[in-house]
Design goal:
With 216 residues, the protein is of the alpha/beta class. It has one domain: Metallo-beta-lactamase, Chain A. The strands form two sheets. A seven-stranded mixed sheet has the order 6-5-4-3-2-1-13. The N and C termini lie close together (6 Å).
Length: 216
Amino acid sequence: MKLRVVYDNEAKEGLKSDWGFSCLIESEDRKLLFDTGASGKILAYNMQQLGLRKEDLEIIALSHEHWDHVGGLDAVLHPGVAVYLPRSFSRRLKEEVAREADVFEVSEPRDIIPGVHTTGELGGGIREQSLVLDAEEGVVVLTGCAHPGLENILEAATVFGELYGVIGGFHGFDKLESLQGLELIIPCHCTVRKKEILEMYPEKTVRCGAGVEIEI
């Protein structure tokens, strides 16, 4: 399985950076996009630079209903694409998406495709889903902003296997010692303590940014 960061606060040369997050998951011949960043124009530009077409996307999974994760949605919707979103999303957004795509509401943990699972909705205030990806060494957790608390998301992911890694936005997560058992750490987007994580786990941490590719 291959992951490609498409949208992030940082970017490799030739791509545009912006506040937001989006990551492509490629499993065999299937492509799933997790979140869509804030701007459809920037998302479309980065996808073009990476050789990706929206028509190639079979599934779009949205973590939570904040503009920096759903703002680019119009740039990737197309007839036949399946959109997995938390049940707590507003009726307005659900109806907008349903005009162009098939909507699947998520509340509980479930499989999306073989090797890709959702934690289901987590959190009290801001409801959010994260994805859990099967890897040879265990499972890798993919987060949007981790509003429910990264430690709670990681705990929820253990129903799918032993934790191997985590990638995405960690928000204000500060229990950095709890990452010690992971072998792959990729703090992205809204992670407040990104620099500390990089310094604390230099051999396990990969610097995030649009254009970064990871094989798991």
